């Protein structure tokens, strides 16, 4: 990524496209909605490769610990699918995509200013 676009920009672009694609999935119907759901995979493809270097930058001797915490954070991704399923069961699979919008907005925050917080 860094040869073509900065990690920050990659995360910002991924987060914004994630929000747009999720909104597209929410406010369209049929094959168009399915297309937007499929495009969410494109938005997700650069998220973790962009988060990793931003998160471990400047950790120095704590880089191994920081990396291991990031690996454990992958397990945190196991929380959203059951929540999505619960929302889908109680409303509709399409409306359950509201769940991902705050997640993408947090990623946008992290890519913009959140990763700089420890340096302040």
Q: What layout of secondary structure does this protein have?
A:
Layout: H1 7-27, H2 30-44, H3 47-56, H4 63-76, H5 80-90, H6 100-112
Helix pairs in contact: 1-2, 1-3, 1-6
Global structural class: mainly alpha
Report the uncertain regions: none
- Estimate what percentage of residues fall within beta strands: under 5%
Q: What overall geometry do the principal axes of the alpha carbons give?
A: globular
Q: What's the count of strands?
A: 0
Gyration radius (Cα, Å) is 16 Å
CATH superfamily: MFS general substrate transporter like domains
**CATH architecture verdict:** Up-down Bundle
The amount of helix comes to: over 70%
Provide an overview of this structure:
The chain is mostly helical and 120 residues long. The protein has one domain: Growth Hormone, Chain: A (Up-down Bundle), CATH 1.20.1250.20. It has 6 helices and no strands. It is globular and about 50 Å long. The model has no long low-confidence stretch (mean pLDDT 89).
Which properties best describe this structure?
about 120 residues, mainly alpha, Growth Hormone, Chain: A, about 70% helix, about 0% strand, globular
What is the compact description of this entry?
With 120 residues, the chain is mainly α. 70% of the residues lie in helices and 0% in strands. It has a single domain, classed as MFS general substrate transporter like domains (Growth Hormone, Chain: A, Up-down Bundle), CATH 1.20.1250.
């Amino acid at each position: 990524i860094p040869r073509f676009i900065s990690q920050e920009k990659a995360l910002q672009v991924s987060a914004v496209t994630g929000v747009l694609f999720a909104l597209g999935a929410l406010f369209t119907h049929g094959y168009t909605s399915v297309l937007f759901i499929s495009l969410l995979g494109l938005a997700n493809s650069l998220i973790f490769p962009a988060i990793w270097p931003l998160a471990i930058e400047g950790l120095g001797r704590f880089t191994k610990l920081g990396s291991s915490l990031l690996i454990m954070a992958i397990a945190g991704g196991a929380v959203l699918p059951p929540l999505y399923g619960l929302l889908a069961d109680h409303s509709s699979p399409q409306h359950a995509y509201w769940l991902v919008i705050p997640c993408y907005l947090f990623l946008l925050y992290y890519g913009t200013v959140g990763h700089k917080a420890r340096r302040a």
